[in-house]
Q: What sequence folds into this?
């Protein structure tokens, strides 16, 4: 062998050995962190040990789990922060409410198929090497305790660069029936592009197997979210899921419940609530089932007043000037449920209106017979839900249907179609600076129902909201990473063993 051939083989072997350490320059997936991979793993580690290189900015996406696949390109010039078109865009909904056809690009579909939760979680976080000499540089005379705290402004800006969190709130009266085998239309509706950071599901007349219901939700969401807390009272149930990387910035959960029919053995009417802090912002979620029947408006108003004044929250979490009205003690309050308010219009006229109306409705209200809605009247005169707001209703009435069909009640009771299932929201009044509020207003991005689910006589209703976060202090009692691990493991096990055909999910059954 000649000297020239020997040098050529040596260079080839060296190049081959180095290629094992090179990380591929992958197209970032929809819910992962995009890092420009231009150096070998060994070179990166060596660079991080250099003080000058530690100051170098890395090109990463601003928000993990919030990337738009369709806008991504593997071209070299796209090295800036990945741009997200909007926090949440309303797409064409493949449902009976929205007959607009959804257009999909074949390249997008191909990319969607290549995305897996495993790749998401591998790319979900980047741990930077910390120079020892930097850690040894203490200053005992200057600085604030909260400046570099776990819940402080620097950490908040790292996790939420725009300090905005997206929240999904869903409510559904299950009518005691088992849920459908596929919950995508409710849990992950096609009307939203990115999975929200927090998802809260309130159910009334829930199925008896609560663990199975929670596993169904976990299986649908996948490993990116975990069940942070759940609470139930009689047939009421509330489940709170959060993005798993947020579990370190959230406080311990606190819950409360109230039955407005304390004398009854089987509690179907009342409310359950869960509260917590994310960084320094407090949240309260309430799901309720109020008194039924068309004429009992006063009883429903009375139920709301009892719930508001009886839920004792917060208990341990910090709260200045705690009020008897529980909705005054939190930055953001979401009240959902089967509130049972009806349309004060004869059934025949409502059915006639429905036969002549196409959905979704125009954005303006009132429209049709919505100005006869009992809850709209209660909100207008301040009889209950003071300070609460509801987004514009553009979907058909969610009650009452013949189970298994899209037909309104054909039984002997002949119930009038109504909007019994609602989501209300409230924001604590903030201070003004130079004519503007200190905190941006709470926004409802989408408010819709799920017509495709027919197992109950009610349709599920869901909304997505955008709220503003503020920094917190490490003195807040944290959840310390605790969550419902048994639900998480069972949901992932079922997800991993799913058949290609729809409906390999175990569902709850009434006993």
A:
């Amino acid at each position: 062998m000649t000297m020239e051939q020997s040098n050529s083989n040596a260079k080839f072997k060296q190049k081959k050995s180095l290629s094992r350490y090179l990380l591929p320059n992958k197209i970032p997936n929809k819910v992962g962190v995009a890092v420009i991979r231009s150096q070998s793993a060994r070179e990166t580690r060596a660079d991080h040990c250099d003080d000058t290189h530690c100051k170098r900015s890395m090109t990463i996406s601003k928000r993990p789990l919030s990337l738009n696949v369709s806008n991504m390109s593997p071209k070299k010039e796209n090295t800036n922060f990945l741009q997200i078109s909007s926090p949440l865009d309303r797409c064409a909904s493949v449902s009976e409410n929205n007959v607009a056809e959804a257009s999909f690009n074949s390249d997008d579909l191909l990319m969607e198929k290549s995305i897996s939760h495993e790749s998401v979680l591998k790319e979900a976080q980047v741990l930077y090497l910390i120079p020892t000499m930097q850690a040894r540089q203490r200053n005992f005379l200057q600085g604030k305790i909260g400046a570099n705290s776990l819940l402080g402004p620097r950490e908040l800006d790292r996790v939420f660069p725009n300090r905005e969190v997206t929240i999904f709130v869903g409510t559904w009266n299950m009518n005691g029936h088992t849920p459908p085998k596929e919950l995508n239309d409710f849990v992950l509706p096609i009307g939203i592009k990115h999975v929200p950071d927090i998802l809260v599901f309130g159910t009334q007349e829930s199925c008896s197997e609560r663990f199975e219901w929670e596993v169904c939700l976990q299986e649908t969401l996948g490993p990116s979210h975990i069940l942070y807390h759940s609470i139930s009272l009689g047939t009421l149930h509330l489940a709170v899921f959060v993005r798993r990387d947020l579990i370190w910035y959230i406080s311990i959960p606190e819950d409360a419940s109230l039955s407005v029919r304390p004398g009854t053995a089987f509690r179907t009417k009342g409310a359950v609530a869960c509260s917590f802090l994310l960084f320094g912002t407090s949240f309260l979620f309430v799901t309720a089932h109020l008194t039924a029947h068309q004429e009992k408006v006063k009883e429903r108003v009375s139920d709301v007043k009892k719930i508001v004044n009886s839920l004792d929250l917060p208990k341990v979490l910090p709260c200045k000037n705690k009020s008897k009205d529980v909705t005054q003690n939190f930055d953001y309050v979401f009240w959902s449920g089967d509130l049972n308010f009806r349309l004060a219009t004869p059934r025949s006229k409502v059915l006639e209106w429905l036969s002549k109306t196409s959905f979704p409705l125009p954005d303006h209200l009132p429209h049709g017979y919505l100005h006869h809605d009992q809850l709209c009247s209660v909100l207008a005169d301040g009889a209950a839900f003071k300070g609460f707001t509801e987004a514009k209703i553009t979907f058909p009435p969610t009650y009452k249907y013949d189970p298994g069909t899209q037909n309104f009640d054909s039984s002997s009771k002949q119930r009038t179609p109504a909007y019994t299932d609602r989501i209300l929201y409230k924001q604590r009044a903030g201070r003004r600076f130079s004519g503007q509020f200190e905190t941006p207003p709470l926004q409802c991005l989408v408010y819709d129902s799920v017509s495709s689910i027919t197992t109950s006589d009610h349709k599920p209703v869901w909304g997505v909201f955008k709220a503003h976060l503020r920094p917190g202090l490490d003195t807040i009692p944290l959840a310390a990473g605790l969550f419902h691990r048994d639900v998480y493991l069972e949901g992932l096990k079922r997800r991993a063993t799913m058949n290609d055909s729809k409906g390999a999910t175990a569902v709850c059954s009434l006993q």
Observations:
- The chain is about 25% helix and 20% strand.
- The first strand starts at residue 164 and ends at 173.
- Confidence is low (pLDDT under 50) at residues 16-104, 500-511.
- The two ends are 81 Å apart (CA to CA).
